[in-house]
Design the sequence.
């Protein structure tokens, strides 16, 4: 009998400072964690606690993973203190994943902002692995300022594929910072690309406000409710639908989600809070 | 089967001393003095000199506390191997255990600690022959006597227990009982007596709760105006007593109590009535106001759980009303909400 509370120890071997408040931990679990992109894991520090995070690495690699974490509360402050050599505890994987089989042959649009890029990087890297299976992949990524952009070193590589577009925008450029790309809200980038909403999927992840207006914009441009995939991050405490903290109406964000179609949850309460 | 009440109690005493290989015999005892004319009953270990009252009404704490412990280590899990006999569980608690089984054993994963307690415990339930002031199982299609979910059930019939068998695994216990005390077949008249007793208690219950009757239809509960909830929640202080004592509430906190050497996870009860319940890092929470959290409990019981498990999350045991620091009567709120739900339609 599998114990859903089982903790798999993992060794952190690298910590990358992505932006002033965001770090990526790279770690090797002592036992492979066979996740599907979009699913989440619980990352814990012994004696402190744990929290739900979606891996930001490709699901083709199950024994060497990344999580990208924003420093925003009690646990994440501890996580940001970690250095290479630290041991963390992983539970999972839990929840639903991005249904890649439904994306095959399609023009896939990915819309993300802030730390919401973490799960989207996992999706993106997983799709790049078989990029020819998709007609095209467009990744619109937003950040507050140039300094806040994530995965800076990987952008050149991501832009090398014929059928892949990676477009970035920042909300503003403070004095003294350099930026040669778009300056606008990430949702505004939608107007600049030739969208093919007809029957194609769009995946949205980011801060609640961005997700809300991003979703509404995509609907306006003709994307169908059932083709809009949202990562609903709630307080996913246990990971398997027992603790009930993440209940959205009759759904569990941890078990039925975190990946929902807008169609599934549009009538539920407080989904953007 | 029919056994003499005194004989059965003697048999329980023998079991508590090791006959049958049980580690524990747990029974309800009256504790403390009467409050508002009501006795309090608690599940305790069997003690030889205490007077047993196996029927009476429900205990103050739900049977949940024996299976889903207030605080329990869930990783790593060790084999408890504790064969227990739990006597005097009431119909409302059996119904709640049935729901907890759905949540913890049949939802795609198994909570290992809960499963062990369930597997290792033989449940002997009993008919209610008294009513607590807050008892209201009849309002939720329940009865003050068990119909299923037990291993054995005890009904009083003229100084005897009429014993009904509810599971195959009780066979071993029955065989042991036949060896130790006199067991005879029940007659039609015994069954008639039990039926009459049951009817009498049920009729009392119906009469007592007549003014609290509701439609039983909660399909539109989400549409009830926020203002009505504000009204209902005005006195609520958000202490969470209602959820902790509820036999079907099982929200948990998972604490990390790891040492330098081992990862250790301990779960304990949480309450959706508390501000921090659904709060995420950064401070966002879907229910910042007390009214919203108050409403959430009713929606969880009558809407979400119904959606998740196909049944209401309320058994009508009345414990939340009994425990409420602000004296909010759950039954009154349910009645009002249900009438407002009708208006929505």
Sequence:
């Amino acid at each position: 009998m599998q114990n859903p509370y089982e903790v798999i120890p993992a060794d952190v071997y690298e910590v990358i400072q992505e932006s002033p408040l965001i770090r990526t931990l790279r770690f090797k679990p002592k036992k492979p964690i066979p996740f599907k992109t979009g699913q989440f894991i619980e990352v814990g520090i012994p004696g402190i606690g744990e929290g739900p995070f979606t891996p930001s690495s490709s699901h083709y690699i199950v024994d060497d993973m990344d999580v990208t974490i924003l420093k925003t509360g009690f646990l994440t402050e501890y996580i940001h203190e970690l250095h290479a050599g630290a041991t963390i505890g992983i539970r999972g994987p839990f929840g639903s994943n991005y249904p890649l089989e439904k994306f095959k042959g399609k023009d896939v649009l990915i819309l993300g902002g802030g730390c919401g890029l973490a799960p989207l990087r996992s999706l993106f890297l997983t799709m790049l692995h078989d990029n020819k299976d998709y007609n095209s992949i467009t990744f619109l990524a937003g950040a507050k300022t140039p300094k806040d952009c994530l995965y800076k070193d990987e952008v050149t590589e991501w832009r090398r594929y014929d059928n892949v577009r990676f477009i970035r925008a920042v909300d503003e450029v403070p004095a003294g910072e350099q930026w040669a790309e778009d300056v606008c809200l990430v949702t505004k980038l939608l107007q600049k690309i030739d969208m093919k909403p007809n029957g194609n999927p769009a995946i949205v992840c980011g801060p609640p406000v961005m997700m809300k207006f991003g979703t509404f914009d995509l609907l306006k441009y003709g994307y169908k409710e059932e083709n809009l995939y949202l990562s609903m991050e709630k307080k996913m405490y246990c990971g398997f639908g027992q603790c009930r903290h993440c209940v959205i109406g009759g759904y569990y964000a941890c078990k039925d989600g975190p990946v929902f179609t807008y169609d599934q949850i549009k009538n539920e309460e407080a989904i953007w809070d | 089967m029919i056994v003499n009440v005194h004989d059965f109690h003697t048999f329980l005493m023998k079991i508590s001393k090791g006959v049958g290989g049980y580690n524990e015999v747990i029974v309800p005892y009256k504790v403390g003095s009467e409050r508002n004319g009501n006795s309090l009953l608690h599940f305790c270990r069997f003690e030889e000199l205490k007077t047993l009252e196996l029927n009476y009404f429900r205990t103050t704490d739900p049977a949940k506390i024996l299976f889903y412990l207030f605080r329990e280590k869930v990783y790593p899990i060790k084999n408890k191997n504790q064969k227990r006999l739990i006597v005097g569980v009431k119909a409302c608690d059996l119904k709640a255990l049935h729901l907890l089984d759905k949540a913890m054993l049949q939802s795609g994963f198994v909570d290992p600690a809960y499963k062990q307690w369930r597997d290792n415990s033989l449940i002997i339930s009993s008919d209610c022959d008294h009513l607590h002031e807050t008892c209201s199982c009849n309002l939720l299609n329940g009865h003050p006597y068990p119909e299923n979910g037990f291993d054995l059930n005890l009904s009083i019939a003229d100084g005897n227990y009429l014993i009904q068998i509810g599971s195959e695994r009780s066979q071993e216990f029955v065989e042991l009982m036949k060896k130790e005390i006199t067991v005879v077949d029940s007659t039609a008249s015994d069954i008639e007596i039990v039926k009459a007793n049951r009817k009498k208690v049920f009729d009392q219950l119906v009469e007592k709760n007549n003014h609290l009757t509701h439609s039983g239809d909660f399909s539109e509960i989400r549409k009830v105006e926020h203002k009505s909830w504000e009204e209902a929640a005005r006195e609520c202080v958000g202490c969470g007593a209602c959820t902790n004592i509820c036999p079907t509430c099982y929200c948990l906190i998972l604490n990390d109590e790891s040492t330098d050497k081992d990862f250790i996870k301990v779960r304990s009860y949480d309450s959706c009535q508390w501000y921090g319940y659904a709060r995420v890092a950064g401070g966002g929470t879907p229910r910042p106001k007390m009214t919203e959290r108050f409403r959430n409990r009713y929606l969880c019981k009558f809407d979400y759980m119904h959606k998740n498990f196909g049944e209401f999350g309320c058994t009508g045991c009345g414990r939340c009303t009994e425990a409420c620091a602000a004296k909010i009567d759950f039954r009154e709120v349910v009645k009002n909400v249900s009438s407002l739900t009708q208006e929505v339609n």
User: Anything to note?
Assistant: Chain B is about 35% helix and 20% strand. The first strand of chain B starts at residue 2 and ends at 4. The mean pLDDT of chain B is 93. The radius of gyration of chain B is 21 Å.
